[in-house]
Amino acid sequence: MNKTKKPRQKPGRPKDLEKKQAVLDAAKCLFLSQGYDATSMDAIAQSAGVSKLTLYSHFNDKDTLFSHAVRSHCETQMPSELFNYKPEQSIEQQLRNIAYAVVSLIYDPEAIQLHRLIVAASQKDNRLAQLFFDAGPKRLIMELERLLRDACAAQQLQIADPAQAADQFFCLVKGLNHMRVLTGCLDTPALPHEQEHIDAALELFLKAYRA
Q1: pTM of the model
Q2: 20 to 30 Å CA-CA from 35: which of 26, 44, 123, 176?
Q3: Residues 58, 63, 64, 66: is their CA dihedral positive or negative?
């Protein structure tokens, strides 16, 4: 008697990862539309179409979920691979690629909305601001510091304090326009203007640190 063969599962994304991403997407949407305090874990589970048991199996509490949502958004536009040193590519081009990714990230409408949410919430408690900084900007600074150290080891750059240089790089790329946009004094700048700004920022940075 022939045994009935079980149908082979088609290759695809595991269900638990799909549900985790659904939770992150729902959390990001609700945090931005309703604010952190007004968003409950129950509402996130309902919006994501998952059970509370599934939600808590991935994220212990709302703070943890918020941190992961911020990190996920940053990694989508600025993955860790972007900061890997590439010997076959000039350090100027690698930094330029990062600069364009930074501009794309900070002027993203959701990122601007999140910044404003954080500033408003920090008037009562800076805990949310610290969660945001650790999951987003701090990670990017540490990733760039890693790249700068590798570039120094390859004798492409000469930097005494890579951590400070990474901080300086991001400040140069963001410029004053980012503050103007956050405060509503300026609409999101056009790309041609930002290209000129990035060129000037890179020229200044490399003039200080090129080996």
Answers
A1: 0.86
A2: 176
A3: positive
